[in-house]
Structures are given as structure tokens and as C-alpha cells.
């Protein structure tokens, strides 16, 4: 049996290759080398199994403050208000970025098609290709943007990470 041992060194390690992990890797790649740890390939993530849409206060009939109130109310005391505020305030910027990367959200004519679901008091849910928003569009566009970022490293099926300080700088994967 051959031991195909390979060491990877990077300034940053991102665990997961879904939309959130790839978005973090893209952002971090401007500051240093990035190692993305994935189960197998970049498309093998929980994002591939996600269904539904993305909530964002982008329509003419909505406001960020209302989105925040709805989220806190639906969270029934379990939400961290600071996290909710950040999510709803920055959401429009990142949805706009996904559109710039090529995500094709459903439309009604030339405008984005928002739906009202669950505890939302306004229509603010965006879908792409119906209920397959994440994998069929947003996930694909995130992977495309990731591929064009400054040379991030990728590693599959790895089990040990050494994040110790000392002579080494950054995480090391064994």
C-alpha cells in the first residue's frame, strides 16, 4: 500500500466548498494563500442539496428594517440581533454580487420575482430555477468566481489540520 502523503501550506484554510465557503475563499484570496477543504470536488457540498430561495430586502416594497423585524420575530428569541442586523444590511450587496457573477434569479418581466414565504411580511424571497436556487445557479456562479480568484489551493479527503503557531505560518494540512 502506497502512502500518498502530501502537505499543503496556506495563510488561510476554509472548511467547506458551498456558497459560504467559496465566498470566504474569494475574499481571503486577496490577503494571502487560501486552502479550501472539500469532501471531494467543489460541487460536493450541502449547497447542492439546498432547496428554496434567498431572503433579501431588495424590492421597491421592502425595507431592511422590516426584514430585520421579521427575522427576529420568526427566531422567537433565538436570534442574535447583531447577526441579524448584519445579515439583512449586507444581504442586498451580496445578492447583487451573485447577479453580477451570472446568477439568474427568476424574473417577472425585467424585474426580479420576489415571493412571500414563511414569517416574512413582504415578498423578499428570490429563487433561481424554482426551488433549486443554490445549486443550479448561485452555487455554479460562486464556483465560477472562485475559479477566477488568485490561485486558491484545493484539497480533498483530508483528515488532519495543524493550526499550531511557531515556526510555521498559517494552517498546514497532512
Short synopsis of the structure:
The protein is an alpha+beta fold and 174 residues long. The protein is built from four helices and eleven strands; from the N terminus they run ββαββααββββαβββ.
Structural features, described:
With 174 residues, the protein is an alpha+beta fold. It has two domains: 7-50 and 134-174, no CATH class; 52-131, no CATH class. It has helices spanning 19-28, 64-75, 81-100, 133-147; strands spanning 8-9, 12-15, 34-38, 54-55, 107-108, 111-112, 114-115, 125-126, 153-156, 161-162, 172-173. α1 links the parallel β2 and β3. The model has no long low-confidence stretch (mean pLDDT 78).
Q: Structural class, judged by helices and strands?
A: alpha+beta
What's the helical proportion of residues?
Answer: 25-40%
Q: Tell me what portion of residues adopts beta-strand conformation.
A: 15-25%
Number of domains: 2
Question: What best-fitting shape do the alpha-carbon axes yield?
Answer: globular
Radius of gyration: 19 Å
What does the main sheet amount to? 3 strands, antiparallel
User: Low-confidence segments, ≥5 residues, pLDDT <50?
Assistant: none
- Write the element-wise H/E pattern from the N-terminal end onward: EEHEEHHEEEEHEEE
User: Alpha-carbon distance between the termini?
Assistant: 18 Å
Structure characteristics:
alpha+beta, 174 residues, 3-stranded parallel beta sheet, 3-stranded antiparallel beta sheet, 4 helices, 2 domains, globular
